Each structure stands twice: as structure tokens, then as C-alpha cells.
Amino acid sequence: MITILNDDFSQLNDFLHEKSFSKIFILVDENTHEYCLPTLLGNMETDLGFEILEIEAGEEMKNIQTANQLWEILTEMQADRKALVINLGGGVITDMGGFVASTYKRGIQFINIPTTLLSMCDASIGGKTGIDLMHYKNMVGTFAFPEQIFIFPKFLETLPFKELRSGFAEMLKHGLIADTSHWNQLIQIQKLEVGTVTPHIQTSMNIKQEVVEKDFHESNIRKTLNFGHTIGHSVESLCLQQGNPILHGEAVAMGMISEAHLAYLEGLISEDDSKLIIENIQRYYPYLDISDFKDEDITALLMNDKKNTDSKINFSLLTGIGSCTYDHQCSQKNILEAIHFYKKLNDL
Ligand SMILES: NC(=O)c1ccc[n+]([C@@H]2O[C@H](COP(=O)([O-])OP(=O)(O)OC[C@H]3O[C@@H](n4cnc5c(N)ncnc54)[C@H](O)[C@@H]3O)[C@@H](O)[C@H]2O)c1
Ligand SMILES: [Zn+2]
């Protein structure tokens, strides 16, 4: 259940009153501690005792050591099975906090209060929790639903612009795979800022929620959410390996451009549609210089993708603006051509 909070957080307070929790544990990182926690505490009305659990900000914290520390703190603070964890933060906090809560004492209840655009529209929804293992993202985790997701869009006001733009890529993806009118509305936005993005958050969240409800375990339609992520993930990993990490949404934007062209090469969409998609994504995202990346390095990572079966690369590709297919296997020639297309895009 997703609720957009009023300024007085009354729906959250009602929720806390209705349920008989024993204690509240609020998980934050250093930034959400500074920028979001004061608003939450200033509006939260409850007689329950609460503790603040803070971790450093960043993906590097999403690991078993941090999970272990949090399990230990919960134990030392005698969190019982009626304790509630409130995850106040971006996707790192909602993934990590959901994982810790869903495993502590075989599972205690948690709610998500996402504070980045990416976590509002994507990470906090869908019941996937997890941590990274070695350099593999989200290798260990659980499927576990938060009791509630509360959205307070004003939290976005302190979010750095690049983080806002990163989350916007997932919103564009939701339009492209499932809802033409959402896409059409998003591309009307001239300047990306909190005020122009906020009116579209709910539609984007609903798209993700509906897809997940139809296919929780990702055996069919949930795979469409991976559009842009096959090539995007490879480039994200290569940038990381080279010591120049990029934001997830920046990689997804790049991936959606290449994979829109790939859909055209595979005969799934018209050239006009692929051009329209690509031109619009380019309006928001600067060109990513991948000229140094070797084809074989990119394709080696594509071969490693979690979505693959029988050593074939499975793509989720658009079949129009607002529709998407999955488990589509492309010719090697077209995959390379789609990557080369992106490499040359800046010269056009
Ligand atoms: N579970 C899922 O289905 C799912 C889906 C997509 C992504 N994810 C995961 O989400 C993570 C990425 O999420 P993210 O982009 O939100 O990253 P994040 O949680 O690292 O947040 C990005 C940065 O913004 C800061 N921040 C958060 N809210 C803020 C605010 N209101 N004001 C100022 N700064 C703020 C954070 O401290 C951090 O530095 C990845 O680990 C990814 O694997 C999970
Ligand atoms: Zn994504």
C-alpha cells in the first residue's frame, strides 16, 4: 500500500496508532539523518519509544558487515518481534533495512519512507530487499513486502540534481514499457526539478506496483522493468571498474538509447519511434563517453547478466512506445551495432 503523505504526516501517525508495535527503529544514512529525519521526527506523533540507527551514505555500505552490525544493534536493544523498522532514505536504506528487518528473528515488520526519486518510483516498491556480495550487486536478499510505503515528495528538495535526474530515468522507463501517456507527459518537462517531476511520481509508482502485482517472482512481465538495464548494467559495471562510477539512472538512460536502437534493428519498433525515444532521452542526459570500452568487455558483461538463460542474452525490448517484450534474443551483429550506434551518437 502506497500513501502520499500530507504535510502533517497524519496517515503515518494513524498507521502507528492502529498497529500495536513495541518499539520503533528508524534507519537513516548521514544525509537523510541531516535532511529528512528532523521533518519525520517533527511530525511523528506516537507514545512508542524509538531509536535512530545511522549508517554512512553510499552503495559501499550495502553489505553483510553493515547488516551484521544492524542485527547486533537490534539484539542489544532488545528489539522483539513486534518492533517496527522505518527505512528513511534512498534505495540503499530501503534495500538494506528491508533485508535486515525481514531476516531479524525470521522477520519483523518494516515500512519504507523513500527520500530519493529513484527509491520513490522504483526501489521502495516491489518487495525486493538485498545487499551486495563481493562486487556483485544485490546477490543476497529476500522477497519481503513493507507494511506500508509513505511518500513525502518534499524530501526531494534537498536531493542533488544528478540524483533527481538519475531517478527520472526509471520514470521514463515506466512510460516507455507500459504507459504511452505517462511518457508523453514526462517529455513535456522542459526543466528537471522537484516541482516539474513531483506531479508524475504517483503514476510512475503505480506502473511499477501494477507490474509487480502481476508477476511478483519475475517469471514473465516483471522482466519488462529491465528495459535499458542489460546494456546499461554492463556500462555501469565498466565505469565502476575503471574508477569512474556513474549513477544508475545515467547508465539506464544510456542503456535505453542503445536498446531502443536495438529494438529497431530487431524489427520490433519503427525507425521513427526509436529516433523519437532517443532524441528525448538525450534532452535530459549528457552523452556518456564509452569510446574506450572494448566491445568484448561490454559483451562479456552482457553474457554474465542475471537474466540470461542457456548462455543466451535475454533482452527486454520495446515493441512500441508504451509496450515491451521480454526474453528476446538478439543477433550478435545487432547487439554490437546498437553499442556502436551509441558510441557514434555524439558525432552525428
Ligand atoms: N529493491 C529494488 O527493487 C531496487 C530497485 C532499484 C534500485 N535499487 C537499489 O537502490 C540503490 C540506489 O538507490 P538510490 O539512488 O536512492 O541511492 P542512495 O540510497 O545511495 O541515495 C543516493 C544519495 O542521496 C542521498 N540522499 C537520500 N535522500 C536524500 C535527500 N532527501 N536529500 C539529500 N540527499 C539524500 C543519500 O545519502 C545518497 O548519498 C541501489 O543499491 C540499487 O541496487 C533497488
Ligand atoms: Zn534500475
Low-confidence stretches: none
Determine the N-to-C terminus distance. 46 Å
Oligomer: single chain
Most strands sheet: 4 strands, parallel
- Count the E strands: 10
**Strands of the largest sheet, in order across it?**
3-2-4-5
CATH top level label of the largest domain: Mainly Alpha
CATH architecture of the largest domain: Up-down Bundle
Mean pLDDT comes to 95
Which percent band covers the strand fraction? 15-25%
Enzyme class: lyase
InterPro entries: Dehydroquinate_synthase, DHQ_synth_AroB, DHQ_synth_fam, DHQS/DOIS_N, DHQS_C
Organism: Chryseobacterium phosphatilyticum
Domain 3-dehydroquinate synthase N-terminal: 53-165
Tell me about this structure:
It is an enzyme of class 4 (lyase). 43% of the residues are buried. Helix content is 47%, strand content 16%. It has 2 domains: 2-158, Rossmann fold, CATH 3.40.50; 161-347, Up-down Bundle (Dehydroquinate synthase-like, alpha domain). The mean pLDDT is 95. The protein has a 4-stranded parallel beta sheet with strand order 3-2-4-5. A two-stranded parallel ribbon has the order 1-8. A two-stranded antiparallel sheet has the order 6-7. It has 348 residues and is an alpha/beta fold. It has helices spanning 10-18, 30-35, 37-43, 64-76, 91-103, 117-123, 161-178, 180-186, 194-197, 201-214, 229-241, 248-265, 271-284, 295-303, 332-344; strands at 2-4, 24-29, 50-55, 84-89, 109-114, 128-133, 136-143, 149-151, 315-320, 323-328. Helix 7 (161-178) packs across helix 10 (201-214). It starts with a strand and ends with a helix. The structure holds nicotinamide-adenine-dinucleotide (NAD) and zinc ion (ZN). Residues 170, 229, 248, 252 line the site of zinc ion.
